[in-house]
Design a protein that fits this description.
This protein is α/β, with parallel strands linked by helices. Helices cover 32% and strands 21% of the residues. The protein contains 11 helices and 16 strands. The strands form 3 sheets. Strands 1-6-4-5-3-2-7 form a 7-stranded mixed sheet, with no helix packed on it. It has a 6-stranded parallel sheet with strand order 13-9-8-14-15-16, sandwiched between helices. Helix 4 packs across helix 5.
Length: 342
């Protein structure tokens, strides 16, 4: 790996000899901005992502070659992959960039003792800056958002244009739709905070109705789902990717049950994202962090500091942890975004 502008070593490439298999000495990427030196020029690697390879696409017309991050399963026999570390340059983000000012209260790692309202106000500032630059805001959420009764706040953020893409699993969508149909989440009445007779069946009945309709969008169109996060996404045109797991009930027809196809759908939807907000989900948070470039401002919110630590430990070094309750975070974020400052 090189860092100097004047390094003249060329990148070495080797063809893949099998579909889905890198050459043995392939260069394993980070999520930082990366260039490879080809034909005496530095070529930026498109869509930087951690733990993949670098595929080089020669120009058919004799112009400059292109380079892109390439997951292992997308390699095809004959593709040219960078091998070794010569001719590879990794560009670390500047520590004194102007946009880093919004992180002034966030530079001490994960802590439960920092001022939460100030942290959330800074998140709002970063979101406003991203929207001003035309970048997308990604929200990654877990079912606790619904269980805690804060799904209406998230739905309001979607309708207000503060969410451009939603990543979640079957559970968030299923319980959100359960809440819309029955007023319960996991059978607990969200108004009274108490169980209801046969409430444990509600999420299954909700899933079954959506499966009969054929999709969440069709269930909205038919008037089966009239409120909630998924309703807001459908009615505002906000795309969502629901990734399946082995524990899923149903699942809902929109859930991508092939994990490789699911992460590819996430990669596609994450194009152009400038801010990612992860609330109350470890697995989806880590999965999202794995595909995001380091330049994406990433915030991880959970009551458990270990969730935030896991995200950072697995390579998402840009992640800022906010150890607090998701309901408080979402409510305070909505208030901060509604203010005229920033």
């Amino acid at each position: 790996m090189t860092t100097g502008e004047d390094d003249t070593r060329e990148a070495t490439m080797a063809p893949a000899d099998l579909d889905g298999v890198f050459p043995e000495s392939f260069y394993a990427t980070t999520n930082f901005e990366t260039d490879v030196r080809i034909g005496g020029a530095w070529v930026p690697v498109a869509r930087p992502e951690m733990d993949v390879g670098i595929r080089v696409i020669p120009s058919a017309g004799g112009g400059r070659a292109r380079a892109e991050a390439c997951p292992m399963h997308r390699v095809r026999k004959g593709d040219l992959l960078v091998v070794g570390e010569d001719g590879v340059r990794v560009r670390l983000p500047p520590r004194n960039a102007p946009e880093a000012e919004a992180f002034r209260f966030m530079s001490s790692g994960v802590s439960t003792e920092r001022p939460k309202a100030r942290l959330i106000a800074d998140v709002a500032l970063v979101m406003k800056a991203a929207r001003a630059k035309g970048e997308k805001i990604l929200f990654v959420g877990g079912p606790a958002i619904v269980h805690s009764g804060s799904a209406p706040i998230l739905a309001d953020l979607v309708r207000s244009g503060w969410v451009d893409v939603l990543f979640a699993g079957n559970a968030l969508a299923a319980h959100d739709i359960e809440a819309a149909m029955f007023g319960t989440s996991l059978g607990i009445d969200l108004e009274r905070g108490a169980g209801v007779p046969h409430g444990h069946q509600h999420h299954l009945r909700a899933i079954n109705r959506v499966r009969r309709a054929g999709s969440i969008a069709k269930a909205v169109e038919e008037g089966l789902v009239t409120s909630g996060v998924m309703h807001a996404c459908v009615t505002t045109g906000v795309p969502f990717v629901l990734c399946g797991s082995i524990r899923d009930d149903g699942p809902l027809p929109d859930v991508v049950t092939d994990v490789v196809a699911a992460v590819d759908a996430m990669r596609e939807a994450a194009t152009g994202v400038g801010v990612a907000i992860v609330v109350a989900t470890t697995l989806h948070g880590v999965a999202t962090g794995n595909i995001l470039p380091a330049r994406v401002a990433t915030f991880c919110v959970d009551t458990d500091a270990d969730t935030v630590i896991k995200l950072v430990d697995r390579g998402t070094h840009q992640a800022v942890g906010i150890v607090t309750d998701g309901e408080y975070f979402l409510g305070e974020l909505r208030r901060a975004l509604a203010r005229g400052d920033g």
